[in-house]
Prior knowledge:
By secondary structure, this protein is an alpha/beta fold. It has eleven helices and 14 strands. The chain has three domains: about 60 residues, DNA polymerase, domain 1, CATH 1.10.150.530; about 120 residues, Aldolase class I (TIM Barrel, Alpha-Beta Barrel); about 130 residues, TIM Barrel (Alpha-Beta Barrel), CATH 3.20.20.70. Helices cover about 35% and strands about 20% of the residues. Helix 1 packs across helix 2. The protein binds S-adenosyl-L-homocysteine (SAH). The site of S-adenosyl-L-homocysteine has 18 residues, from strand 10 and strand 12.
Amino acid sequence: MEKIDIKSMEYKELEEFILSVGEKKFRAKQIYEWIHVKLIDDFDKMTNISAGFRELLKEKCELVVHTPVSILTSEIDGTQKYLFELSDGNVIESVLMKYHHGNSVCISTQVGCRMGCRFCASTLDGLERNLRPSEMLEEIYRIQSITGERISNIVLMGSGEPMDNFDNIVRFLKLISDENGLHISQRNITISTCGIVDKMKQLADMNVQVTLALSLHASDDATRKLLMPVANKYSIEEILNACDYYFEKTGRRVSYEYSLVAGVNDTPEEAEKLSRLLKGKNCHVNLIPVNPIKERDYRQSDLTAIRKFKNCLEQNRINATIRREMGRDIQGACGQLRKSYVDNNSKEKEVIS
Ligand code: SAH
């Protein structure tokens, strides 16, 4: 019999489960607190729960706990990259970034990704599987437990496409912002998407307060198609309409991500075109110098081109920042660390067999 994923259960569901096994309702509050506030990694640490009931929980439920296989710390800015092993042997990466305004964790939402963006390391081997709500929560819970430092901000910008794992993301959002749990405000959570239009609208209709970040990376469909296969499915016009809809429904200002690739999308003409697209919108543009991966020959734009690009946007009254590269010395780009770990381990396997 498959075990119940107790960490993915909402408070009400946990209460129902506790009642169904003949225990008192108030036990749900205690157990929820052990899992989602005290962040325990073993049922036996629930010291106010009887040994007998703990045995029953172990028999019926699975407690998802990630094992760190490596933790790299940047000597430049203290950013930490965590490589976690999941119960099925897959590995994922999560990043802890320390800012003046608090600690932020960038989580993966899938093992691998099927979106195929040309510059991204996470998608090179395709999608392995979706992450469950508990597995996404655990990325944050384990980092907070290991460091002993409170996490106040979360970005869904690691490996994977959040909108391609929609139901689990929605449940994750409810659990992480639940007042009985870590209670992280949705306003401190950002979801980044390559632009799956119907899901963006669905999220807008759900009365959420999270920030939407849209990976635009180009100002015309032809250039976008060179970089992102998903552009064959949705046009920039459809995507921007969905972003406007999100803003109307939630009142949250949308962020546009734009990774600058030398000679592809970083010219002054491109900056003008982008300005025309976004002019008058209440938005923010995040310029990201592309992080080259060894499997592709995309190059980073030079600093002068990046500054010119930013100036052009600002002259058009569009808010723009150049993203500070965090953890440059520890394989910063999304999915690079996991990829090199998986590749090295499979090489070892080939040698052994
Ligand atoms: N799938 C989601 C979230 C994951 S990627 C999305 O597409 O938004 C988070 C951001 O990093 C996206 O804007 C993505 O396009 C960008 N990105 C991925 N690899 C990169 C690289 N090597 N250099 C610069 N930006 C990259």
